Structure formats: C-alpha cells, structure tokens
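dude i think i finally got it to work??
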Amino acid sequence: MSRPLKVVALSGGTWRPSRTLVLTQALLAQLAEQLPIESKLIELGRHWCH
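look at this
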C-alpha cells in the first residue's frame, strides 16, 4: 500500500466570502476523489485582515 500524497494548499483572499478559498477547497476535494492525499489548507487572509 502506498503512502498518501501530502498536499498543502494556500488561500490568501482577504474578502469574505473568499472566492479563492472556495476554489481551493474544491480543488482539494477533487484531488481527494482521484488520489490518496493528506491535505492541509492554510488561510493566510484570515490572519492578516484583523
């Protein structure tokens, strides 16, 4: 059995709702349907907007 591919996705959108975040989440979901992945989503805009 092979190990899952590690995927890190970054979203840097500053507006809410963020189109970049929605697109990033959809991309991770599609990858998970096709490949065994271990994913992490980092939202940069969430931390810089305050």
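The chain has one domain: 5-48.
im so relieved honestly
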